[in-house]
Known about the structure:
- The chain is of the alpha/beta class.
- The chain contains twelve helices and eight strands.
- An eight-stranded mixed β-sheet has the order 3-2-1-4-5-6-7-8, sandwiched between helices.
- The longest helix is centred in the N-terminal third of the chain and has 20 residues, at about 35-55.
- The chain is globular.
- The protein binds nicotinamide-adenine-dinucleotide.
- Nicotinamide-adenine-dinucleotide (NAD) binds next to helix 5.
Amino acid sequence: MQIQRVAVIGAGTMGHGIAQVAAMAGQQVRLTDANPDVLAAGLDRVRRNLDKGVERGKVTPDDREATLARLQACASLGEAVADVDIVVEAVPEKLQLKRDLFAEVAGQVSAGCVLATNTSSLSIAAIAEGLPHPERVLGTHFFNPVHIMKLLELVHHPGTDPAVLDAVRQWGEGLGKTCIVVKDSPGFATSRLGVCLGMEAIRMLEEGVASAEDIDTAMVLGYRHPIGPLKLSDLVGLDVRMHIGEYLARELNNPAFEPPALMRAKVAAGELGQKTGKGFYDWER
Ligand SMILES: NC(=O)c1ccc[n+]([C@@H]2O[C@H](COP(=O)([O-])OP(=O)(O)OC[C@H]3O[C@@H](n4cnc5c(N)ncnc54)[C@H](O)[C@@H]3O)[C@@H](O)[C@H]2O)c1
């Protein structure tokens, strides 16, 4: 089983990046989004990332052109998923949305197609439940920005076929990622630790323990984290992190994951972090 043709559903923060790295690795990629403006903006972001790569001498102009030629924007879901080897969904972190999407996709893909979810925390078994081929469902958790971050967290549920896991691991390594394999458990190996730290940092900011900059500097210089937990929350998106926190608080029965009031207020005000220009920091757009 070899994965060469990819469909990415959702062209937002993660989807455009997943499409980019797959196309850069020589795969035929189709990208779609329910919102045509996001789809156009996603392609634009890929172009800009590649332009930056050329400017920095990391991508040749020929590779830039070849990558863009392998990347096709599709207006419909059916067009995107026909005849691909793997479908990677990167739609918002809502269980029912992902389940409904895969139920629709399952009826339109060819035999043997893998359904991969970029969920940061949701149960892979719950996403796979009721699908005709749950053995071909697994988590492929990429990190933001996808073209820079090396980690790919592969999450298998009890029914995932080991051959599917092997094939996807090979695919991930072909994209230049370092793969870790994790059992289907809330928040996997990454979000469970990272979100816990992020929520505590927000609570500290709320309590006036220190400024956002100083809380972040504490972790960067004191604990050698490459980026502080508040800035990271801004990069991920406060809405995305809030949904993950709510889910983990419930699933792990642990109030440490409960989104603090400050986070809820920022999300309600549309201050979602880098993507809206403001979160815990002001971002140039
Ligand atoms: N943002 C991060 O740093 C990050 C990191 C790792 C994993 N994730 C996970 O990746 C997933 C996507 O997150 P994101 O930050 O890219 O979200 P996002 O909001 O930036 O993008 C999601 C996109 O999905 C589209 N969409 C919604 N419903 C759709 C449908 N039915 N069909 C097609 N498109 C649809 C939306 O229009 C939107 O453009 C989530 O599960 C999230 O938890 C996010």
